[in-house]
Amino acid sequence: MNDKGRLKEIMELKMTQEQNKIWTRQCIGNLNSKSFRRQNSWLINAIDLLKKEKISICKYEYNDRFIHHCIEGEMTEIIDFLTENEIEKSSSSRKKKDVIFIKQILEENQEKILKWKHFCKINDLSMKGKIPFWFTKIKNEITITNTRNLKEKYLNRQYNYIESKSKIYDETLNLERKAIITWNDSEGETIFSENKKKSRSKKYKRIGVHLISNLTSINDADNSPTLIVCTGCNKNIKKINDGICQIYIENENSRIINNRKEDNKLKPYESFGDIKNRNEKLIKDKIIKKRLIIEEEEESNIDNINFKGRVYLRHNIYMILD
Predict the structure, then answer these.
(1) For the chain, how are helix, strand and coil distributed in percent, rounded to 5?
(2) For the chain, how far is it from start to end, CA to CA, in angstroms?
(3) Origin, by domain of life (predicted)?
(4) What is the pLDDT of residues 133-153, one digit of tens each?
């Protein structure tokens, strides 16, 4: 690994390939290689020999800067819940789904595991075929029986931040007809709207049909809501109430959600609780971004003031010397 030529490139490429075959964030040089022996894997055999001599080829354990062959993210992995045989057996499936961390299969509040179909839709994956055995095993391991709620010992874990794959609504882009947009308003109410038409408003670019949820119990937050057309409320922007409520589609902090028709009823591919939490996260993320921008501007202004002060001081010194 210390070689700076082709040998180094070949070794790093081979390590990445072996890592992908197991599909883990970790460097192959730090794994227990005996657990992942494969036919004709000379690198695995080499690692075994080196470890017997207490030699590691992974630079990561010596210096945190060297992470180019480690996948960044949180620390709790899917493979932590699988046997050695299951890890290798499921590597292809997990790689196709691009899932490594437990956080990726949890709802936004990290208190429930996602439904499999919801996980697929959020990540733009095909729902064809059976639910993978590794997903079922992890669900049985980390959740309370017959629920999607995480067991207490897993609730206490601090899962690191992984960027959400929510489809942010962009009013400047073409929007699919009858796309469903959702957001949380200033009072914390979750709003749904079906894209309808362009708006003449200077503030809002589009108008949608107001959809409301049929959920009446807090327990229903665990399921996908059935969305029905609002027949009229205080949000209606139409001058005449014809039984179809129309509202402006919020430009900020809103997102597009996948949906389907089930028994001719419109339902999102997210539970109501997860919808609300994901919407709230958009608001919080925007607040954080604004705060960072303000801090950067303040630091820039301070730097400019200090620079001008130094220039002014230097100018006065020259005047005195003259």
Answers:
(1) 40, 15, 45
(2) 62
(3) Eukaryota
(4) 999 999 999 999 999 999 988
